[in-house]
Amino acid sequence: MHILMADDDKDDFLILKEAAEKAGETLQVSYAANWLELWRFILKTVPDILFLDINMPVKNGIECLQLIRKESKYDKIPILIYSTSVNKVDIDKAYQNGANYFIVKPNAIDDITSIIKKLISMGKEALLSVPPREEFVIL
Question: How many domains does the chain have?
Answer without folding.
Answer: 1
